[in-house]
Each structure stands twice: as structure tokens, then as C-alpha cells.
């Protein structure tokens, strides 16, 4: 249960990110309404889950022991800190999601679903982030059950907040100014740096 709660906390990082997926979700919700954008959220959820499973299983194959190698703690900690610094230092670019052509309802739903999958799947930052999260889970927890509970917490937080973003899209839009985005980026960056530092400190304290 502790692992699940930690996962919920870690899930705030992707949940509050203002990257292309967030902006596209909000724009689609405004343009097409909550009923349609659910299919976009399903596409994001499916891709996130698939990427987590791929990175987690891939990293798990590297070690069959209960304690991951030192490189996991050091590399994972440095990777999380690096992502944190990227969030803090990067400058916001204006994102404008591609507009889907007006089509019948079922085709719009499929278009939104496939758009989300492509947007997530081709983004190397998303792959790198979920790989870092998978590395953190393997390093932090001692058993598969705890790791899966951690991932469940992360994904549940992302799914719930995505639904809330879609539902309140009209109200959210007016807050998406540069100052607000910067505050969010800095907050997310600090959380990642804390997680990364925690891994490094725990590694060196256990030596």
C-alpha cells in the first residue's frame, strides 16, 4: 500500500506536465467536448502503460537479484535529476495541436485514439521519463508486487487528472499563461530532483 501511495505522489509529475500531450488534450476537449476526448485519454493511457511495461521488463532482465546493481541507483538518480533540471531550465514553446478533419463520430473517436498513441509513442522524452520511473521502481522496491502497486499509483493519478483536465478544459485554458506554466515546470523539476537525490543518498548511505 505504501508503494501505491508513493506512486500516486510520483504520478503528479506527468499529471501536471504542460507538454504537447497536455496541450493537445485540452485543445481537443475544447474543440470536441468531453465525450470525444475520452478516446484521446484512452490512447494516452494505453501507450503509457505499454511503455512502462516495456521499460520495466527490459530493465528487470538486466538483474535477476533482489538488489539492483550500483549503476541502477547512480544512473537512475542522475537521470531523474537531469530530467528535473530540463523541466526547470527549458523554455516553453508554443504548441498547436494538429486539427483533425471533421468526420463522422466513430471516425473522430478512432482519430483521437490513434492521435494520442502516435503523439506518445514517437516522443523520446516520454520514453526516457518512463524508463527513469521504471528504474526508480526497481531500485526503490524489493519485490514485484510493490513495483506493480507503484506503477498502478502513478498511472491512476495520470488517468484521473487527465479526465479532470478534459472536463474542465474551458476553465483551464485561461490559466495556461507563461507564468503558470513556468511555476508548474519548476515544481515538477524539483520533485524529480528530490527523487533522484533520494536514490543517490540511499545508495551511498548503504555502502
Automatic annotation (TrEMBL):
The alphabetical list of record keywords is: Cell membrane, Membrane, Transmembrane, Transmembrane helix
Q: How does it sit in the membrane?
A: Multi-pass membrane protein
Instruction: State its location(s).
Output: Cell membrane
Q: Where are the transmembrane segments?
A: 6-25, 37-58, 70-89, 110-133, 148-168, 188-206
The reply on keyword Protein biosynthesis is no
**Which InterPro entries does this one have?**
LeuE-type
Annotated protein name in UniProt: LysE family transporter
What organism does the UniProt record list as the source?
Answer: Reichenbachiella carrageenanivorans
Lineage summary: Bacteria, Pseudomonadati, Bacteroidota, Cytophagia, Cytophagales
